[in-house]
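Quick one, T. Sequence first:
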Amino acid sequence: MKNRSFHHLVALTLAALVLSWTTAAVAQSTADGKRTLKAEKIFYKEPGMMEVTLRAMRGTLMMTGYVATEEKLKKADELAKEVKGIKDIRNRIRVRDPDVASAPDEVLIKKIDKAIEADEDLARTKAKGKLKVEVSDGNVTVEGKVAGWDIAQSFVNDIKKIGGVRSLNIEKLKY
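Structure tokens:
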């Protein structure tokens, strides 16, 4: 009987440890996701930074992708220092000539609307008048409130995939 109780105690202890590790990992993942979105708010409103991919991981901001000039490369380092909660910066951005010309605003608006329609949560939010998207000279500004940071992150990723977007300002996008 004592042996069985001991095994139950060990099993419960292990289960508690696994649960605490899982909870910590989810909390870390959420914090990293929010830091990534904060970095994107800073970066993507700067023209020429749309081909940069950002990922926050445990206080480190990993930057990959391309910019057109050495000045933009230096600007990326400056912008990264503005992100709260980031202690280390890994810059893997490369300089290359821009190969994507800005698309006409009407084309960009249609592509963004298509991305919104493809996401049920975004479509519902826009239908309620709680999401506003403006495009001017290839520069996209989004304002409104979405259901969560993960939906905001998904929307940013969808806009990033649209060729011809020069910059993205999500300062007024709440989540």
